[in-house]
Specification:
By secondary structure, the chain is of the alpha+beta class. The chain has a single domain, classed as Ubiquitin-like (UB roll), CATH 3.10.20.30. Helices cover 14% and strands 24% of the residues. The chain has a 5-stranded mixed β-sheet. Strand 1 and strand 2 form a beta hairpin. The structure holds FE2/S2 (inorganic) cluster. FE2/S2 (inorganic) cluster binds next to loops.
Amino acid sequence: MINEINIKVIDRNGELHNLKGPIDMNLNVMELLKINELPVEGTCGGMAMCASCHVYVVSDHILPEKTFDEIAMLEESWDMQDNSRLSCQLKLSEQLEGLTIQLAPEQ
Ligand code: FES
């Protein structure tokens, strides 16, 4: 049983960041990005109500389904793509080990 996972993040300058995150603290990816001082706002605090934590999933992980609220919020984003997710809706779990994401443009 692991208690820490690795996540790769490509920032808006194309730079790669290798992050480690605990899976036993109920954190989500948006919170991990903020802890590591990557430029995501997370304005709504993880309620799927702002899209300021929008990322693109680059790796081919099978992720938890999007909720209705997440889909609705992403559809309002001009830069939504098929691989868009709200990072606050992705809880750190073993399932996310090795995940690679790219930060979406600023809202
Ligand atoms: S922090 Fe607002 S939608 Fe993710």
